[in-house]
Amino acid sequence: MGNLKAFLKQNKKAKKTTQFAATKSLCDENGDPLLWTIRPLSTKESAAIREECTIEVPVTGKPGLYRQKVNTDELLRKMICAAVVEPDLHNAELQDSYGVMSAEALIVEMVDNPEEFGELATFVQEYSGIDETLQEKVDEAKN
User: Fold this and answer.
1) Strand, helix or coil at 35?
2) Whole-angstrom Cα distance, residue 100 to residue 109?
3) DSSP-derived pairing of the beta strands 54-58 and 66-70
């Protein structure tokens, strides 16, 4: 226990934000893609989002037996929305400009290119320290 003080919370390094060009369709006056501010998700936040997107479904042919199923699309949208600091996806004016009423609906409208959305989701997961992305798990489950 000689080095307990080194483990105290005040000695923990703060997680930093970073910049990422989420889409090529939103550009500055020079035509360069706008940079979004992204923060890493904590273990606690990631687990809470996963739990929120998980449901119990009955196992076919086995009455009373259930298994967990994760809504991966919802999970990715919620993870991205939790990680994006700027632009403020909860801003009513921004949501109104896209004709939506939630951050999750807004992110799909703002990053409407499937490849760019996938790249943003992968970036958020990797920046948050999630080594294996959700898409990799889905692909592995299919094989």
Assistant:
1) coil
2) 8
3) antiparallel
As a residue count, the chain comes to 143
Q: What CA–CA distance (Å, rounded) separates 117 from 95?
A: 18
The span from the CA of 133 to the CA of 51, in Å, is 17
Contacts 24+ apart (CB under 8 A), 112-118: 112/23, 112/25, 113/23, 113/24, 113/25, 116/22, 116/23, 116/24, 117/76
pLDDT tens digits, residue range 16-62? 999 999 999 999 999 999 999 999 999 999 999 999 999 988 888 88
Q: Residues 75, 50: contact at Cβ < 8 Å?
A: yes
